[in-house]
Write a structure and sequence with these properties.
- It is a single chain.
- By secondary structure, the protein is α+β, with helices and mostly antiparallel strands.
- The chain has helices spanning 20-29, 40-50, 56-60, 76-82, 85-95, 173-187; strands at 31-35, 68-69, 99-107, 123-125, 130-136, 147-149, 192-194, 200-205, 210-212, 224-231, 235-237, 249-250.
- It contains 6 helices and 12 strands.
- The radius of gyration is 18 Å and the shape is globular.
Length: 281
């Protein structure tokens, strides 16, 4: 039997929390850093509760990159951060549509992920209505693996695998990364680092080129949470699974507004996925 389509959650939203200058900065640079005004106790609890969710190889070797995907399904602090009214209000102000969170990723150390655009993983019709919010759960500096991004690169064309004569497939993802690296070098793009304070968030446009900088001090952690958002009144699809035969449409399950929720039978609470190592450089 076909699952019933999920009603849009009744999120609490902080209306227009950003200044005109902040909105203009995001339009020009493709990212924005702002304070979330969350308590230290809340962040302590979130970090402590997510820690056991990381894979065993990370617990045995804390320098091994790891992630916990969709921990909001079992850890309510993760869900609360994903539906924070201030973040939802900022996103709505920047994109002009209601923000709908659909995925969380938690990290204990830097990802060292190669430069990419989220457009290759998530897109929408009309295009570009996807954003990420990266929250620092501790102070992040140049030594413990900050986010690395290229201001203004969100204004470049949206590059899919086919633009590099690649068949859409994760088997070809490393070739996509090589082409993006060549593109950055050819255009002389200059990167910046997300050295932000605990409790601050960095919103980035889906087409902003970004990745994870090298973590030079492997004795340190770099706890963070990423939430991905689509926006209302769009269709959603996965470019990596889309080809000449058509788009691979998505039916996202929106992260609930409250702790009282149940997942459809086809979306069970499964064991948290391990990080796919071929995406780490």
């Amino acid at each position: 039997m076909k699952a019933t389509k999920q009603a849009l959650p009744a999120y609490a939203v902080t209306q227009s929390p950003l200044s005109e200058a902040q909105v203009s900065e995001f339009a020009e640079r493709g990212y924005l850093v702002f304070d979330l005004d969350v308590s230290s106790d809340f962040l302590d609890s979130l970090v402590a509760r997510v820690e056991p969710c990381y894979p065993e190889d990370h617990r045995l070797n804390p320098t091994a990159p790891a992630r916990a995907q969709d921990a909001w399904k079992r850890i309510d602090e993760v869900r609360q951060l994903a539906v924070l009214p201030l973040a939802l209000g900022a996103l709505e102000q920047l994109f002009g549509r209601r923000a709908l969170p659909f995925q969380t990723l938690n990290f204990p150390i830097g990802t060292r992920q190669a430069t990419h655009s989220d457009i290759v993983h998530f897109n929408s019709i009309p295009s570009g209505f996807m954003a990420g919010v990266w929250v620092a759960l501790e102070d992040i500096d140049l030594d413990n693996g900050p986010l690395q991004y290229y201001p203004g690169s969100h204004l470049l064309p949206e590059y899919a695998m086919q633009d590099f004569d690649l068949e859409p497939s994760y088997d070809n993802y490393r070739f996509y990364e090589e082409n993006i690296k060549a593109l950055v070098e050819a255009r002389g793009l200059q990167h910046e680092f997300g050295t932000i304070k605990r409790g601050q968030a960095l919103i980035w446009h889906a087409n902003l080129l970004h990745g994870g900088a090298a973590q030079t001090d492997l004795s340190r952690s770099r706890h963070s949470q990423v939430t991905h958002y689509y926006f209302e009144d769009c269709e959603y699809y996965t470019p990596m699974h889309s080809g000449a035969e058509g788009l691979s449409l998505r039916d996202p399950f929106w992260i609930p507004a409250t702790a009282e929720f149940s997942l459809p039978e086809d979306r069970p609470v499964s064991r948290l996925k391990r990080f796919v190592r071929r995406f780490i450089r």
